[in-house]
């Protein structure tokens, strides 16, 4: 291994690191945005009710029941 060897970084990785270097609050804002939509407590009772209310689909959807 050469003395001045640098590990490979793709252009995408370099771009993202430069973006984070320019705006240090970027990652914190991304986490806040994710928390708005995804990181929430799940209502287990509502999920159970939705699953219980589902109607089983027949094997071939377009076949009429005769």
Radius of gyration using CA atoms only:
25 Å
- pLDDT average, as an integer? 88
Low-confidence stretches: none
The helix content is 40-55%
Shape field? elongated
Strand content: under 5%
Assembly level: single chain
What distance separates the N and C termini?
A: 74 Å
Return the structural class: mainly alpha
Largest sheet descriptor: none
The arrangement of helices and strands along the chain is HHH
The total strand number stands at 0
Number of helices: 3
Can you walk me through this structure?
- The structure is a single chain.
- This protein is mostly helical and 66 residues long.
- It has a domain at 10-39.
- The protein is 52% helix and 0% strand.
- The chain has 3 helices and no strands.
- The longest helix is centred in the first third of the chain and has 12 residues, at 11-22.
- The radius of gyration is 25 Å and the shape is elongated.
- The N and C termini lie far apart (74 Å).
Task: Please name the defining characteristics of this protein.
mainly alpha
Q: Can I get a quick summary?
A:
With 66 residues, this protein is mostly helical.
Outline the fold blueprint:
Elements lengths: L10 H12 L3 H12 L6 H10 L13
